[in-house]
Amino acid sequence: MTDPLATALTRRLGCRLPVIQTAMGWVATPELVAATSNAGAFGFLACAVMSPAQAAEELARLRDLTPHDFGVNFHSFQPGAAQIVDLILANKDRVRAVSFGRGPDAGMIGRFRDAGILCIPTVGAVKHAEKMVSLGCEMVTVQGGEGGGHTGSVPTTVLLPQVLDAVDVPVVAAGGFGDGRGLAAALAFGAVGMAMGTRFLMTAESPVPPAPKAAYVKAGVTDIAVSTKVDGIPQRMILNPLLRRIESSGRLAMWQRAMEAGLAMKRQTGMSWGQVIATARGMTAHGEMPLAQAMMAAAAPMMIQRAVVSGDAENGLMATGVVAGRLRDLPTCTDLLQSIETEARSHIAALCAGS
Predict the structure, then answer these.
(1) Low-confidence residues in the chain, pLDDT < 70
(2) What does DSSP say about strands 194-196 and 140-143: parallel, antiparallel, or unpaired?
(3) pLDDT on residue 237
(4) Could you tell me where the DSSP H helices lie in the chain?
(5) Which pLDDT does position 323 carry in this prediction?
(6) What is the pLDDT of residue 354?
(7) Distance (Å, rounded) from C-alpha 324 to C-alpha 5?
(8) What pLDDT does residue 267 have?
(9) What is the gyration radius of the CA atoms in the chain, in angstroms?
(10) Distance CA 166, CA 175 (A)
(11) 3-class DSSP state for residue 294?
(12) CB atoms within 10 A of CB 134
């Protein structure tokens, strides 16, 4: 009998289970990616928030932490993107896939394809899935509106079948998933697996400090909201003191926060103000936005880093999928994936038995 958990995802990525750990900035570290991969899923290293030198160091460390292949996430507009692409290609013996949002062109996608590296962009709209496939991508991850961070308004249960009908490549489901029932449901829709961010953030191996981890565990679904005031684009986050202040603040206060975070970014990265603004524009709408919004975008990563790296759960921002509202534990990656596998197999068996 064919194993229902053996899919195009497991075959193409070489993992045991059709589960992807997404590349959350500052969270998807070598330790988390290795724990994910060693437990049977496929992990992505978050190089989109790294300099080329940092990426080289973290890739080398990850290679030593797991015998399994892994993925790398990057943005084509980040500082040093060309060097990071070269670094990924230099590690093609271990990097099985890359993930990204919109950005890479057909030429760059072709370079990865020629190297045997699978391009799996994350998309939030049918037209973006179609565009990525037309550029040469051989698999896509579809994130519905339940997903964390920047998110759309179309629920996964609507967007996923739309994309499945629109493209002829394997599709991975994301947005709202956190257990084996979700994996069984994703496969029933016709996806080749599921991708999870928040559920992996809420694990023992996640590097997020205790205070914000506790905030994730404590948050109910009514403590999670979508805000457009952080950088002008809808983002789903935990409603903590900082986000409440942002939601109630006026334009002047937001400019002040943006300038403060921009200065912090300059100190941390050595970028000029022009580079900070250019990076901010690229992170959001590829330059098609007013300067005020671009500066708010420059502020957002620093405020997220304040929470998930520095551990300030009150004065930092905590991106999250709405699924955090029903998660109440911090399992090891091994325990989590064992539970997902057991539950998924049980639900699939029940469906097949007609019960």
Answers:
(1) 1, 102-103, 261, 265, 268-269, 279-295, 355
(2) unpaired
(3) 96
(4) 8-13, 30-38, 52-65, 81-90, 106-114, 126-134, 156-166, 180-189, 198-201, 210-218, 241-248, 251-269, 273-284, 291-308, 333-353
(5) 98
(6) 73
(7) 25
(8) 73
(9) 19
(10) 19
(11) helix
(12) 10
d(CA 142, CA 343): 23
- Distance between CA 75 and CA 49 in Å, rounded? 9
Q: What pTM was computed for the model?
A: 0.92
254, 229 in Cβ contact below 8 A? Answer: yes
CATH numbers and ranges of domains, the chain: 8-206+330-353 (3.20.20.70), 210-322 (no CATH)
Residues in a beta bridge with 351: none
The strand pair at 171-174 and 194-196 is best described as parallel
Please, what is the Cα angle at 72 between 331 and 140, to 5 degrees? 90
Q: The tokens of 311 are what? A: 């551990």
131-189 tens-digit pLDDT: 999 999 999 999 999 999 888 899 999 999 999 999 999 999 999 999 999 999 999 99
Contacts of 82 (CB under 8 A, 6+ apart): none
Contact status, residue 22 vs residue 99, Cβ threshold 8 Å:
yes
Residue in this structure with the two tokens 């072709």, named with its chain if needed:
110
> Which residues lie closer than 8 Å to 348 by C-beta, 6 or more apart?
4, 184, 187
One-letter amino acid of 181: R
CA separation for the pair 194, 9 (Å, rounded) = 9
